[in-house]
Amino acid sequence: MQTLANRRQFLALSSAALAAAARPFGAIAAERGFKLGVASYSLRRFTRPQAIQMLKQMEVRHVSIKDYHLPLTSTPEEIRAARAEFDAAGLTTLSCGMIKFMEDDERDMRAKFEYAKLAGFPMIVCGPTRVTLPKLEKFVKEYDIRIAVHNHGPEDPHFPTPQSALPILAGMDPRCGLCVDCGHTAQTGADVVAAIREAGARVLDVHLKDLRDIRNPNSWCDVGEGMMPVAAIFRELRRMDYRGGVMLEYEIHENDPMAGMQKSLAYMRGSAAALEG
User: Fold this and answer.
1) Structural domain tally of the chain?
2) Spatial separation of the C-alpha atoms in residues 97 and 105, rounded to whole Å
3) Domain range spanning residue 13?
4) Residue 9 three-state SS
5) What string of DSSP letters covers 45-90?
6) Mean pLDDT value across residues 205-216
7) How many other C-beta atoms can be found within 10 angstroms of the C-beta atom of residue 108?
8) What's the rounded Cα separation, in Å, for the pair 45 and 172?
9) 151 and 190 Cβ atoms separated by less than 8 Å
10) CATH number at residue 16
């Protein structure tokens, strides 16, 4: 159940969200200075053409492409053709991922950077280990492709929170940073807003989701219906002059996600719009 503060937040944002949802998404994102978008993992049960059509229906302009929609095993020709489909739909690709770097094998690392290079991805949202993360810097410099470490909460033995990666990232190239998963961060008991603030310039990407009960992994819900301090997250990102993506990563209703994703995006748009009021 929502707290009183969250209910007040919802009421304060609801009119702005409804107004924002009625206007073109690209215009709202540009006006508010945020690159609001969708991680295509949210559409994991759908083919690439279906996912692209759904993104267009939601008036999404920014996307992070999961390998469900462009397999890592694709040939160069398949990669170029797939990327052309996203481009033709008017979608700006901010990143790919989440891609795992669990093997201490530079051939595997290089193959994944080659994949990103061929597809024209400027950033890889990644899941490394404490051993492999420092070794990725070599490829970041060689390929000029950023990496953003995605934290996965209490079940993640390597990087449960953004802060758990910061000691390793501290001495690395500035193009090596974090994808702050707000839901998984909150599940550890960490203060999400404080985690973002502490990470500072290392925040290169943000995945937004919501839970009715922060500590219950089975309580995912539409953004704005749970305990996530969405408005405070947007305020902190604005204060930081953050320029990366704020990507909806939708965990539920995987076979029929459209209604919930549209509702979540409307709330995100409203949160951005409310900063101007």
Assistant:
1) 1
2) 19
3) 4-274
4) helix
5) TS-HHHHHHHHHHTT--EEEE-TTSS-TT--HHHHHHHHHHHHHTT
6) 95
7) 13
8) 36
9) no
10) 3.20.20.150
